[in-house]
DNA sequence: CGACGTCGTCGATGTTTATCGAACAGCTCT
DNA sequence: AGAGCTGTTCGATAAACATCGACGACGTCG
């Protein structure tokens, strides 16, 4: 019995080992990632802020969960291809992948951001 | 200690006890409902068919799951406010709630339906 | 009436997810 | 060096979810 593979399938094909390529974005996965109240408000807050590190984003989105939980959600959004992380020093700066999402799913992001704030 | 309430909160406020009112549609819930490969293709198939009973819809969407599972998914979509069920005789006819979704989340449905068939 | 077709519900099972705290690693600043 | 901040990962737990087969309700067709 061979050892279980180490690499995450989501990552194998991908260029940088973290963010899926535009061509790899799957609609169901994007929608599932956004289908959570916390992650949705996170994305809406990020759209306002433009770019932000995790701590500020979490505060700005008004999320009271623990940091580890937020880290988990951030990962889900990243793996779905919704946001991009750029590490600088000890901080991780997040941005919405607006262009990529628009290229692959035209109008989707606008519709979601324009929607009444999560309510 | 009082007994737990019997009624599903999703249903209590609602007019007909099955379909949420337009004003009750929650974006996160809609997205979560669509964030499943099977349900997404179901909705896309339903958009093509216009109206369909469950059996035909399931076949047309190419879903091989059991009927009880499909029934479950259909319920999720219904409770999220994405489709409407009209019972006639022994059959249940399903339609997309296009107008309601457009009214509440303009552009969302179009973006989703226009997207490359689930891939 | 009786067979069949269409569906929802129930109970069980296995998987995925959300959540937390603890521990850890890397930067920054003094 | 040492304290503090930023953020991830791990292990545990509980809740939610997808899935199935069996059953029952109801309509329809012969």
The percentage of residues in β strands of chain A lies in 5-15%
Quote the distance from N terminus to C terminus of chain A.
50 Å
Approximate shape of chain A? globular
Biggest β-sheet: strands ordered side by side in the sheet of chain A:
1-3-2
Report mean pLDDT of chain A, rounded to a whole number. 87
CATH topology group of chain A: Arc Repressor Mutant, subunit A
CATH class of chain A: Mainly Alpha
Helical proportion of chain A, percent range: 40-55%
Largest interface: A-B, 26 and 26 residues
Keywords:
homodimer; 119 residues; mainly alpha; Arc Repressor Mutant, subunit A; three-stranded antiparallel β-sheet; 12% strand; globular; disordered N terminus; DNA-binding
Task: Explain briefly what this protein structure is.
Chain A has 119 residues and is mainly alpha-helical. Chain A has 7 helices and 3 strands.
Summarize the structure in words.
Two copies of one chain form a homodimer. The relative contact order of chain A is 0.17. In chain A, a hairpin with a 2-residue loop joins strand 2 and strand 3 (91-96). In chain A, helix 2 runs antiparallel to helix 5 (67-80). Chain A is built from seven helices and three strands; from the N terminus they run H-H-H-E-H-H-E-E-H-H. The longest helix of chain A is centred in the middle third of the chain and has 14 residues, at 67-80. A three-stranded antiparallel beta sheet of chain A has the order 1-3-2. Chain A has helices at residues 9-12, 27-34, 37-49, 54-60, 67-80, 98-104, 108-114, and strands at residues 52-53, 83-88, 91-96. Helix content of chain A is 50%, strand content 12%. By secondary structure, the first copy, chain A, is mainly alpha-helical. Chain A has a single domain (24-112), classed as Winged helix-like DNA-binding domain superfamily/Winged helix DNA-binding domain (Arc Repressor Mutant, subunit A). Chains A and B meet through helix 2 and helix 7 of A and helix 2 and helix 7 of B. The structure holds a DNA duplex (30 and 30 nucleotides).
